[in-house]
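Look at one record.

>
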Amino acid sequence: MEKIASFTIDHIKLQPGVYVSRRDTVGAEVITTFDLRMTSPNEEPVMNTAEVHTIEHLGATFLRNDPQWKDRVLYFGPMGCRTGFYLLLAGDLSSEQVLDLVKKCFRFIADYRGEVPGASARDCGNYLDMNLPMANYLAEKYCRVLETADESRLHYPQ
């Protein structure tokens, strides 16, 4: 079988940042998948499921309510390796074009206090697996990366 694109990225060199993972054409529309890499793969501990789940709920809620981007958001969810998230947006977009959106999203998560949206038995299949304080901490850490993001944090290493 042919190796898929995400397995061709050198994860030894990969650092936290915002990267275009792929672009797909569906009909006349381009869908851009972003790799929101929050931790250094194979260097830092992976995120636990409770904080990943919390970030997923808060991030999806923020993104699907953003007045400028909500109609372009197709998906926000965790990577299986638990080192970050995928964000799929309608449009042929660059990391630079979405950096401000990602900054605002993770600032929202870092500063969020209160009940996590959708964290109830009625709304979620695993609502007890949440950790808001750790989600706040990890989002704050990622915000610091995003604030100083340069070319090396916006384009995959060669």
